[in-house]
Specification:
Blueprint (H helix, E strand, L loop, with lengths): L5 H16 L10 H11 L4 H15 L2 H6 L2 H7 L6 H19 L12 H9 L6 H12 L8 H10 L8 H11 L4 H17 L18 H8 L2
Helix pairs in contact: 1-11, 2-3, 2-8, 5-6, 7-8, 9-11
Bound molecules: iron/sulfur cluster.
Length: 228
């Protein structure tokens, strides 16, 4: 398939996954600083433990300024349910320090007024914040048209044939940005339904292709059928 055909293929993927998993209305699920800090806490951590770490952090310190200025050991204890807590503490403190220095407070509501590329650029200048976290905050909190490429979106998109095996999730962001529609609700459905697909059917290891609605347009499936 040539590169010009990929936008039409993306629409087919969207339609088939929408039929299979349903529509997901884009409603902001939590306030922007919550989303940003929770995304850092979620790295290699279950949803339940991420939520516990966040709750403990807020209960212990109250506001973001107190978190920013907290002793490292106390902060590590508060977020202990999150894996690699010691490594996440300096990251969280540095992010809060930079936001406070630039904005006068740990508050990022101003991103609502920025075009999506500017918002991505601003967030990605924060220490340790990459395209996935930046895109999550902008799409989920501000309904900006950008697709977060997490591990599931990356794996499913790669198997379908949107990019080659050497493209990592960071490199996948600009590739998908060029070929997907810049429509927040469309991208939200695409993200949520590919995430579900990656968790339930196109899983890590051996994908469950026998249950998949995408076999007719999937490069991985088609080449596995052609193999002797
Ligand atoms: S056909 Fe198989 S490899 Fe392709 S998207 Fe479906 S589950 Fe994944």
């Amino acid at each position: 398939m040539s590169a010009e055909d990929l936008p039409a293929k993306a629409q087919q993927v969207y339609d088939l996954l929408l039929e299979h998993y349903g529509n997901n209305p884009l409603v902001p699920r939590r306030e922007p600083m919550h989303e940003l800090i929770s995304t850092i806490l979620s790295h290699r951590t279950t949803e339940a433990n991420e939520a516990r770490a966040y709750r403990q952090l807020r209960e212990r310190f109250g506001d973001w300024e107190a978190v920013r200025d907290a002793p490292v050991a106390e902060l590590a204890t508060a977020i202990a349910p999150s894996n690699f807590a010691e490594a996440k503490v300096p990251k969280i403190k540095a992010v809060l320090a930079q936001i406070s220095a630039e904005r006068g407070a740990a508050e990022i509501g101003f991103l609502a007024d920025l075009p999506v590329e500017e918002g991505m650029g601003w967030l990605m200048r924060l220490p340790g914040v990459g395209p996935k976290t930046a895109a999550l905050v902008l799409l989920f909190c501000f309904a900006k048209p950008i697709l977060p490429v997490d591990t599931h979106v990356h794996r499913v998109s790669q198997r379908l044939g949107f990019f080659g095996p050497k493209v990592n999730p960071t490199q996948a962001h600009p590739i998908l940005w060029k070929l997907l529609p810049h429509d927040a609700q469309w991208l939200y459905n695409y993200h949520i339904n590919q995430l579900r697909h990656g968790q339930q059917i196109c899983v890590w290891g051996r994908p469950r292709c026998e249950r998949c609605p995408l076999t007719a347009i999937c490069d991985y499936y088609q080449s596995s059928q052609a193999a002797p």
